[in-house]
Write a structure and sequence with these properties.
The structure is a homodimer. Chain A is of the alpha+beta class. Chain A is built from six helices and five strands. Chain A has helices at about 5-10, 25-35, 55-60, 85-110, 120-130, 160-165; strands at about 45-50, 75-80, 115-120, 135-145, 165-170. Strand 1 (about 45-50) of chain A pairs parallel with strand 5 (about 165-170) of chain B.
Chain lengths: ~170, ~170
């Protein structure tokens, strides 16, 4: 698919159909994450690919807004070192956002929908995924073919108009 | 360009040639940012498109690692509300990372290179961009045609191998 079509077809998908995802497609999505840029190329990330239905159901309890993960074809847990330093937190999460968006666009290119979920119950997440003490499940990405309608380029996305958010040379 | 080619051709570009960027290309890159997902679709972002050479030079002083911005064809300043709350900071920066990656892939699709710079001197950034008190220049994205060689898909990116960063169902 053309890049612009993938960028404009991506939308947050929380209803998934039951078709499983091909191993090669999942590998491509994870490869897109691997290639994302990061601060000083530090790659402070690990990705837990969750396909086991029991694991998907368990991990969907980490936040009320993560319920859709239980029905996803697969999920990617974005795991990173935890820090209580504000600047480091900003940097790690900016990098994770880049990796997530790379996965979402790669997925859209394959007709696969995606949606991020926050994590609130870090202890449960650590237990379900058996994470080391120094790592935290920071975000979850649900993946699957959309249950409602196939992805196709969206003409008018629900966003503020460009004129409202873009400034020229200064605010 | 095919999506996968754009994803794999993107690389951090810090040397730019002198060709200016077309207005339509810059608009497409900003449109990619506008379409990025964000927490509850809150769109806690503004984008300052900097093309004025004096402004590019001034804004390049906000961090030693931002020097390449002075020679970029253009830059996008990612502006967001500042918070000293750790969870909010994580969320805002995850969203900004998604918007940035969307711009970088849209740029790569057009043969345009990009590279993020951190910001350290927030006061200088606020002065140069005349930001409101409740906003902060959080990241800078330099844009331009690469000065060294055109973008093309990279076979072996300098990244940890997939096996090292991907876990299956649990750590």
């Amino acid at each position: 698919m053309e890049t612009w079509d993938a960028i404009t077809a991506r939308r947050a998908t929380k209803e998934y159909d039951t078709r499983p995802l091909a191993d090669t497609d999942l590998e491509r999505i994870l490869e897109a994450a691997r290639r994302a840029p990061s601060s000083s190329n530090n790659q402070r990330w690990d990705f837990v690919l969750i396909r086991n239905r029991g694991q998907l159901e368990r991990i969907s309890k980490v936040w009320p807004g993560a319920a859709h993960i239980a029905n996803a074809a697969a999920a990617v847990g974005l795991v990173a070192p935890f820090s209580d330093d504000l600047r480091l937190t900003a940097s790690i999460n900016y990098d994770l956002g880049q990796a997530a968006m790379s996965m979402m666009i790669a997925a859209a290119d394959l007709g696969i929908g995606s949606r991020t979920a926050s994590v609130q119950d870090y202890a449960l997440a650590a237990e379900v995924l058996r994470l080391p003490d120094d790592r935290r499940l920071t975000w979850l990405l649900g993946l699957g073919y959309p249950g409602d309608r196939p992805l196709k380029p969206i003409k008018n996305p629900a966003r503020k108009p460009l004129e409202e958010i873009v400034h020229h040379d200064r605010w």
